[in-house]
Amino acid sequence: MANTYTLIEARTLSSSTASITFSAIPQTYTDIKVVYSLRTNLSGGPFYFDDLAVRLNGDTGSNYSRLTLRAREGSVASNKTSPTTFMDIYAVDAANATSNTFSNGEFYIPNYTGSNYKSLSCDGASEHNSANDVQLGFAAGLWSNSAAVTSLIIYSQNSSDFVQYSTAYLYGIKNS
Amino acid sequence: MPNPTKLIVDCSTGVTTEVELTDAEVAQREADAAAYAVEQAARDAAAAAKAAAKASGEAKLAALGLTAEEIAAL
Q1: Is the pLDDT of residue A2 over 70?
Q2: Contacting residues of A for B29, CB less than 8 Å apart
Q3: What's the Rg (C-alpha) of chain A?
Q4: Which of A10, A42, A163, B45 could be bridged to A50 by S-S, CB 3.0 to 4.6 A?
């Protein structure tokens, strides 16, 4: 159980960028948590929201298992996938979302320095002013790697860019 | 045209750098997007098939005389 929360790093984008990476994550906490408020420039269709992903330690191999529950465009779907090359996380507004809105979400990685496979849990919601054209989601994942987590990258699965004023905060949590 | 950039926050120093993606990273990005499109199409197809099966099943139940409320209660 978390007893302390320490803000390790916080960043607000001053311009568009393809991804946000936290590197050289200190190994002195019990758990880590990332809280984000994001929007991408995905356009060219009815894109009110985009799809986010995270990778750990730069691993692009098929080592991420995930179970997701998400609502999008008024329908709800659950999905369990075979191991893939990234972890789903939620959510992110896209170019057609209400102007100046940013999604909100967070994911938590307990025991990130341990020698077992790493679990991740996430929840998030887009902030478009619509009853249906929004994305809400929960995700649980497992990274099949026993290495300590030293870096993580957040990016768009559609290869769009995060826009200016998107933010990401990395917290370290100790159990004592 | 320059490649997109990435933001890297070094938590040991607090230094943030914004650097252009390498050609290999751009290629990885394009591969990721292509893989995502395939997966999304599969998800959409599965959802459409499930919806069609549900509608077909409900129609058959209705033909047997079940009311909409009874079908919904199943």
Answers
A1: no
A2: 18, 155, 159
A3: 16
A4: A42
Indicate the residue type of A136: L
Tokens of A93: 């507004």
Q: pLDDT band at A133, cuts 50/70/90? A: confident
Q: Does B33 touch chain A (CB under 8 A)?
A: yes
ipTM of the complex: 0.90
Fold assignment, A5-173: Jelly Rolls (2.60.120)
Across the range A134-143, mean pLDDT stands at: 91
Separation of alpha carbons A34 and A122, rounded Å: 9
Q: Residue A47 is encoded by which pair of tokens?
A: 């894109």
Q: Is B2 on the interface with A (CB under 8 A)?
A: no
Taking the model in full, what pTM does it have? 0.88
Whether the CB of B35 is below 8 Å from some CB of chain A: the reply is yes
Read off the tokens for A134: 């929004």
Per DSSP, A158 falls in state T
Sign of the C-alpha dihedral, residues A40, A45, A49, A54? negative
DSSP E strands in chain A: the ranges are 4-12, 19-23, 31-38, 49-56, 64-72, 75-84, 87-93, 103-110, 118-125, 135-143, 152-156, 167-174
Task: Measure the CA–CA gap between A163 and A41, rounded to whole angstroms.
Answer: 6
Binary contact (B4, A17; C-beta < 8 A): yes
Q: What is the pLDDT of residue A1?
A: 58
- Conformation bin of residue A162: beta by default, left when phi > 0, alpha when psi is -120 to 50: beta
A12 to chain B: nearest residue by CA? B7
